[in-house]
Amino acid sequence: MAEKTTTPSKKPTFLFINKESEPLFSKKNRVLLTDPLDDNNPITVQVLGICSALAITVQLKPAVVMSLSVVAVMGASNVIISLLRNLIPNRIRIIVQLVVVASMVILVDQILRAYAYDVSKQLSIFIGLIITNCIVMGRLEAFALGNGVWKSFLDGIGNAAGYGFILIVVAFFRELFGSGKLFGFQVIPDIIYDMGYENNGLMLLSPMALITVGVFIWIQRARNRKLIEKN
Amino acid sequence: MNRDSNGYTFLFAASMVLVVASTLAFTASSLKSLQEENVRKEKMQNILSTIGIQTDRDQAESIYKNHITGTLALDHLGNNDETVDAFQLKLNSEIKKPVKEQRFPLYKAVVDNVSYYIIPLRGSGLWDAIWGYIALKSDINTIKGAVFDHKAETAGLGAEITQKWFMDRFKDEKVFNSSGQLVGINVSKTNNDPKDIDKNDHEVDAISGATITGDGVTDMIIERLTHYLPYFEKEKTTIASLN
Q1: Residue contact B12–A95, C-beta within 8 A
Q2: Which residues in A193-202 are b (16+ Cβ under 10 Å) and which e?
């Protein structure tokens, strides 16, 4: 065994209370939370999780519930994997991650079925498909396995929020222009329809989600010069 | 302890499975009653919507009790089997039995002094089961309303059978032809009546891209209704004798 004398920087970490560490919301920790919202957004920058972004953004309500579910799943599974990170045998770590994510997803699914039955029917298979959402596994493998519990929690929440943010923006435009409604309530007044306006049925189809995400990426890059690749 | 040894890996995997399994089993069993309650009330909602009553889930039970006057579990000869609770009958297991052992649930409803017969349906779509309810008016011929649901039909295509515009097409269609033969409703791709104005053609317009699901709906309606023919005959005689 190598010498493991307790140097000040190697104090034992109990849960997320790290004795000599930084404050809970230090600048570094805040970046974990805010970075995925813009500079490192899982959808628009890393282009992960596109599949579900297309599928459930026809209306705002399922998009919001899906975002919350992903926040819950990612926060919880990041915390669990981070807690276990020194116990997980390296050779089966992917399996362990899958099991953790899958059980979190089943928990969310069961709870929705008991307390939000209509929404769970609407989301049906997409809740199950959170398991295959690359963002979740990606963050477990890339972050939670190597970082402390609190940081992993922030990272999970941040990335899920980044994903959810795009979902909600896309759903907002698709529901508004596709059916003239928001959260199921009509917002475009009848008088405009009388004047000859029609809902754009194309917005309800998946390709328009891709185009909306594309437009979002365009705007984001025009604003945020850091994202532009240098050849 | 060596984290890469086989023994440790097995030990870890085994304890992980134990913990996960017991957590999930505990959650599933503690939420089960709430979930079943949701399913039960949704069934009431579906039954009510075929006779034109839209309600939210919380009120479904009381409205259901007000309007559903009888639930029958019929045998293949059209007699009511009083030992069976028709509401609890599960069509998915019932449908696999031989016809003579099956019980066919039927709901009788009264709305504004008009009586309706509501028949549960179950059949196969493209990927998995489809089911629904169909309500006949007191002439036991004209459809008052229909509602469909599915387990895993393709979103945007077969899954559209649950949309109101599709279910509304069945309203006022007739299931018996003019010579009194049961023909059901054909979900038709070669319909010359895409707006479903002709209510005597026993056809509704199909959904593009959902041929197999549509055929499933056609088959399900005729297959299920056939089993109720003996009961319909009796009921028609009773109604005739009353007049």
Answers
A1: no
A2: eeeeeeeeee
Considering only alpha carbons, which residue of chain A is nearest residue B20?
A: A103
Domain boundaries, chain B: 39-242
Q: Assess contact for A48 and A134: CB atoms under 8 A.
A: yes
3-state secondary structure of B134: strand
Q: What is the pLDDT of residue A231?
A: 65
DSSP state of A128: H
Please state, in angstroms and rounded to a whole number, the distance separating the CA atoms of residues A147 and A18: 12
Find, among A193, A168, A188, the residue nearest to A177 by Cα: A188
Q: CB–CB of B38 and A107 under 8 A?
A: no
- Tokens 């509304």 -> residue: B168
- Contact state of A91 with B4 under an 8 Å Cβ cutoff: yes
Give strand pairing partners of B121: B132
* Contact indicator for B167, B159 with CB cutoff of 8 Å: no
A104-133 pLDDT tens trace: 999 988 988 888 888 787 776 678 778 878
Residues 79-138 in A contacting B (C-alpha not used; CB under 8 Å) = 87-92, 95-96, 99-100, 103, 106-107, 110-111, 113-115, 117-118, 125
Q: Which residues of A touch B165 (CB under 8 A)?
A: none
Of B4, B16, B35, the CB nearest to A90: B4
List, for residues A61-86, the tens digit of each pLDDT value: 888 888 888 898 999 999 999 999 98
Q: Does position A207 have pLDDT exceeding 80, yes or no?
A: yes
Q: Tell me how many residue pairs between chain A and chain B have CB atoms under 8 A apart.
A: 53
Distance from the Cα of A186 to chain B's closest Cα (Å) equals: 18
Average pLDDT per 10 consecutive residues for chain B, totaling 243 residues = 85 93 94 91 91 86 90 89 85 88 91 91 92 93 93 80 90 91 90 81 89 94 93 88 79
What one-character-per-residue DSSP string does B174-239 give?
BSB-TTS-B---EEESS-S-TT---TTSSEEEPPTT-HHHHHHHHHHHHHHHHTTHHHHHHHHHHH
Q: How far is A117 from chain B (nearest CA, A)?
A: 7
Q: Given the structure tokens 């409205």, which residue do they identify?
A: B63
Task: Name the minimum distance, in Å, from the CA of B207 to any CA of chain A.
Answer: 16
* Per-residue model confidence as pLDDT tens digits over B118-147: 999 999 999 899 999 999 998 999 999 999
| Residue A70 to residue A130: CA distance in whole angstroms | 7
